Amino acid sequence: xxxxxxxxxxxxxxxxxxxxxxxxxxxxxxxxxxxxxxxxxxxxxxxxxxxxxxxxxxxxxx
Length: 62
Known about the structure:
- The chain is 55% helix and 0% strand.
- It has 62 residues and is mostly helical.
């Protein structure tokens, strides 16, 4: 079930891709590959941390 929506999804994808891109370009050390986490959660639309915390930024379906 999706719990990441809208702007949250976009921000995660941009931030994740930015971190990975900066690491590949040599601007960040290897820890920049942590960008795979926000990138994946943005693309999938589900965040395990949101589930644990009971959060949801995805609009409810009516």
